[in-house]
Amino acid sequence: MTARLRPDLDALPGYVPGKSLRGAIKLASNEVAAGPLPGVTDAITAAATETHRYPDSGATVLTETLATRLGVPAAQVAVGCGSVSVCQQLVQATCVGADDEVLFAWRSFEAYPVITQVAGAWPRTVPLLEQTHDLPAMLAAVGPTTRLVFICNPNNPTGTALGADELTDFLDKVPSQVLVVLDEAYTEFTDDTVPDGMDLARGRDNVVVLRTFSKAWGLAGLRVGYAVAAEPVVAALRKVYLPFSVNHVAQAAALASLEAEDEMRKRCAAIVAERGRVLGALRELGHDVPPSQANFVWLPLGERAAEFTQHCAERKIVVRGFAGDGVRVTVGEPAENDAFLDVAGTFEL
Ligand SMILES: *Cc1c(COP(=O)(O)O)cnc(C)c1O
Q1: pLDDT mean over 152-174
Q2: What is the pLDDT at residue 10?
Q3: Would you call 329 helix, strand, or coil by DSSP?
Q4: Measured in angstroms, how far is the CA atom of residue 208 from the centroid of ligand 1?
Q5: Across the strands, what pairs with 327?
């Protein structure tokens, strides 16, 4: 007889990671292709001599360094094992059961529904409007059982971003007991039309800014993310933190990455330039690509999304398809983008 497991897990959508195909160009997971930033592999090598010791569970130096850079007290910064882990901690810190709702747009980051349901909370979704968050509809969906709202800005997978005015209006109107998370995984790729969540959060104790080292900073494989929030929120996040989950090597690599910020900015500028080129070329092919503020573009192919994804895979380009909806394509190195555009050009629209 098999052990008794939670019956609701059967209905749970599993997280689908970007696929890897041997010898293929991988444009499926929004990684930065250039590798770890300068100095980071040396820091990792040095940290490797200490792996017989438990890591600093409070990630003290990293937390203090981030706090100083962001101009907040260290008691307002909580690191986690990737920002996905911080998302999960946020749900655990606000919800106790299925009567507690987590609100987010759909389609948005695939981890939101999974972590919400694993935590036993109720996911409530509001459809995107023209590939963008529909903030008035989201505000209308906030009710007495809403505990947490995720706003992904720019949105994964559509790349679209909200401006300061509409976000400020939303934050002004949302009840102050509802925690609002601004997930800014792609903030380093945005232009100045996209507000910095740190500015929006100032003076609002119910707003959390979520950041990650996985994308622009090139550390997806080491799992470091963090939240900036009011002190009671951070204290709650630390209570639900899985002890030691941000490991020693990851802490050292994150610190070394911060030292290489100039190089990170250069890489992001190159990716943003490529994004413009890829977007223009796709529109020329007839795709209705929304403007992107992230390191990927979105092809709203609807019923043909799976077919396009397959077309690319057969030609050794791995993109991220969402069947029945669209395809997300990471902006890679120029040669990778050229290869993708060639393949996209052979797809009959
Ligand atoms: C990639 C991504 C993250 C980062 O997740 P990590 O766990 O830090 O690797 C968070 N939020 C969104 C919307 C993302 O696309």
Answers
A1: 98
A2: 86
A3: strand
A4: 15
A5: 299, 321
H or E element that contains 280:
helix 261-284
Side chain identity, residue 315: R
Separation of 304 CA from ligand 1 center, angstroms? Answer: 26
DSSP tag of 124: E
- Give the total residue count for the chain: 349
Rounded to whole angstroms, what are the CA distances from 134 to 105, 166, 173, 207, 294? 8, 10, 14, 18, 19
Determine which residue's CA is closest to atom 3 belonging to ligand 1.
185
Task: Report how far apart, in Å, the C-alpha atoms of 301 and of each of 68, 125, 158, 220 are.
Answer: 44, 21, 12, 28
> What value does the mean pLDDT of the chain take?
96
Ligand 1 pocket (Cβ < 6 Å) reads: 30, 82-84, 109, 152, 156, 183, 185, 212, 214-215, 220, 225
- 231-257 burial by CB neighbour count: b if 16+ within 10 A, else e? eebbebbbebbeeebbbbbbbbbbbbb
pLDDT band (50, 70, 90) for residue 15? low
Ligand 1 atom 11, closest CA: 185
Q: State the Cα–Cα distance between residues 69 and 263, nearest whole angstrom.
A: 17
pLDDT, position 314:
95
Q: Which atom of ligand 1 is nearest to the CA of 30?
A: 1
Whether the model clears a pTM of 0.90, i.e. scores above it, the answer is yes
Report the relative pairing of strands 225-228 and 207-212 from DSSP bridges. Answer: antiparallel
The CA 121 to ligand 1 mean position distance, Å, reads 20
